[in-house]
Amino acid sequence: MIYAAVMGYGTIGSGVVKVIEGHHDYISKKTGKDIRVKYILDLREFPGDPYEDLIVHDVNVIMDDPEIDIVVETMGGTKPAYDFVKRALLAGKSVCTSNKALVAAYGPELLKIAEKRNANFLFEASVGGGIPIIRPLNTCLTADKIIGIQGILNGTTNYILTRMEDEGLGFEEVLKDAQALGYAEKDPTADVDGFDSCRKIAILSSLACGKTVDYRHIYTEGIRLITSEDFLYARAMGRSIKLIASMYTDGYDTHAIVAPMMVEKSDPLYSVRDVFNAIKVTGDVVDDIMFYGKGAGSLPTSSAVVADVIDAAKHIGINLKVFWNDEELQLCGIEEQKRKFFVRVKNSAKQAAAEQFEVEEFIDAGVEDETAFVTAPMTEMAFAAAVGSLPGVIGRIRMC
Amino acid sequence: MIYAAVMGYGTIGSGVVKVIEGHHDYISKKTGKDIRVKYILDLREFPGDPYEDLIVHDVNVIMDDPEIDIVVETMGGTKPAYDFVKRALLAGKSVCTSNKALVAAYGPELLKIAEKRNANFLFEASVGGGIPIIRPLNTCLTADKIIGIQGILNGTTNYILTRMEDEGLGFEEVLKDAQALGYAEKDPTADVDGFDSCRKIAILSSLACGKTVDYRHIYTEGIRLITSEDFLYARAMGRSIKLIASMYTDGYDTHAIVAPMMVEKSDPLYSVRDVFNAIKVTGDVVDDIMFYGKGAGSLPTSSAVVADVIDAAKHIGINLKVFWNDEELQLCGIEEQKRKFFVRVKNSAKQAAAEQFEVEEFIDAGVEDETAFVTAPMTEMAFAAAVGSLPGVIGRIRMC
Questions:
Q1: Percentages of chain B per state (helix, strand, coil), in multiples of 5
Q2: Tens of pLDDT along A313-356?
């Protein structure tokens, strides 16, 4: 018998308990591991809950119980999650977490402690919810040098953008509706301003490069400024607008960014709609592969957490090497990134645009009094300079 | 130092050697495993090849060398692959193979030998080329009961269907062109008649259910009868035609089939084009997830084989449990499968169709002298009976 404790009995924590206990016999048959939840840590009481007897309020009960081999952290945030997780690892317990904020901020430190204690720090659910991506990066793409990652890593923003595209609505209107439907938080900042995607691409980039990518150094732009007119242009170009989190490396220079981008139809990310997430990984041997699925939700996320719990159960006393050390990977400044830009300008600025930019094409989407154009590939710095001196700019979106 | 031998120096085998040797330092840094190719078994000589010194013609050199811990089998077919692989496993060596015919025919027996000898039999590359799917099924979806799998598992047929769709051409014409371009074999039967997909879905179904699905019991239909007119109807319905390999289980009854199907736009398989493969897996916890990438080719396939080699190197003397035993899973007969059907009939048969079928809709795609309809969901048996007594049937395709 292997005992686990779950810290945080919210949406994900309760799903995890339900899956470990509800699938107990199946998991045992499939994997040969007999896993039980012994404690659930939460400040609240849960009268009538089928697992209310397992609730404890004192974290020391878990930390001091030598029978607990695996601790699941589904509290979110870094306080007190960081302290609790660190204590568990120092006590030689393995930790499985869905907490991207924790992993992005303290991943390499916690991995190092796990290694020293012959335990494991696993975080499959921290990126892409139920989509297997962390373990495939660690165990499947081992022969590949990872050249790039491009992902739609946030379901809320993708849902909002999909509805704007389908229904021709503005951002604020769809956001309100998404909040009413429970697809967006009351305070939607972490999602719509890209902070959630930023932490996730930092985690993936670190695993791809083997060093630590500091999420605070990733240029991050959200979707608040995207308008229904932008989607008219996207359609005219056969593209869609997605919040893309990406990194690219040639082994020397590494670039990362989170921003809305114009994605072309032939890109597999184009057809990722609604709350779905997808992560495209480019390896120097395997070329492009993509992982797709539900990036959030109690059960999908629990699927990933419990898979980690099973992996931890299979490796008690055996540390699984993770390619991520605490040396910081220096990202190139945003100004060096090079790509095409889509720019909307007032009709009166068309002539000036043609003079100041190498324009690849002008796009007419039937929007009154304005036109738009796509530039040749240029650096962010060159673009910023050129667009700064152009009058009548209405908006700009990067091309993917 | 861990030594591997590669049996079969063709497209995939040579890619494997290139990746193990060419990425030696990188793999060693990333995984801590120092792996070298010691022998390459092939009947031919390769004068001038950078690895010609490693070529041997006698399999006993490999079998009798206790330094060889890992054998890569990239010969294809089952003779002599089966004998060689069995001997290697009995000698306690791990085997990594890309050979779906071998895995579909002898998987459970070879897994059992590997288990007894504390070695591993790994076959990530046997399905989906470079796409990680076998290891994710074994190590990521462990908390899920797999309810269904639907895949586009053959790049050649998907390439042919994509070109028929885009260019309005007939099957024979595109096949000839695909052969000229090297996308289809001179003898295209294994691909276009669905036998390749059939073996692959048998492997995936076995891993999903934990028992052995005999590929010979899977109803298999290829794409030879698909016409350019079929694509006119598909377009009129907002669908595409794909060769779908699928299995579905409710835990009691299990169904499997390989056949061309009409896939709707909202299905992530809809946008899988050209030589790409994709596998959609439905778990009772995670819901739908999809894996996408290049299903063939020297380097993508080598990526998967070498990932297996690295996994084998990490687990020398430790058998990785695989959920697949030799008990045969009894598939339900095809006649019990239930779905909608798309049927093309001569205009004169429209009235009879409306009487003999519960028609959901008639579709007009502007094809002279004929019409088409979609039935309500019905069993294969009921459909066969009804369509058999309907005059003027031109063709039928299953709805996905």
A1: 40, 25, 35
A2: 999 999 999 999 999 999 999 999 999 999 999 999 999 999 99
Pick the CATH number of A137-294 from 3.20.20.370, 3.30.360.10, 3.40.50.300, 2.60.40.10: 3.30.360.10
Strands B276-283 vs B239-249: parallel, antiparallel or unpaired? unpaired
Segments of chain B scoring below 50 in pLDDT? none
pLDDT, one tens digit per residue, over B239-250 is 999 999 999 999
Q: Testing the interface with B: which of A140, A150, A305, A311 to mutate, by most B Cβ within 10 A?
A: A140
What is the DSSP-derived secondary structure letter of residue A181? T
A112 is known as an active-site residue: no
Give the domain ranges of chain A.
Answer: 2-130+298-314, 137-294, 335-399
What are the distances in angstroms from CA A245 to CA A133, A186, A264, A293?
15, 23, 16, 16
R_g (Cα) of chain A, nearest Å: 23
pTM strictly above 0.90: yes
B137-293 placed in CATH 3.30.360.10:
yes
Task: Determine contact, residues A136/A188, Cβ cutoff 8 Å.
Answer: no
ipTM value of the model?
0.94
Query: How far A143 CA lies from chain B's nearest CA (Å)?
Result: 6
Q: Kindly state the tokens that stand for A40.
A: 């659930």
Reported CATH class of domain B336-399: alpha beta
The total of other beta-carbon atoms located within 10 Å of residue B246's CB is 25
Name the helix (H) or strand (E) containing B176: helix B171-181
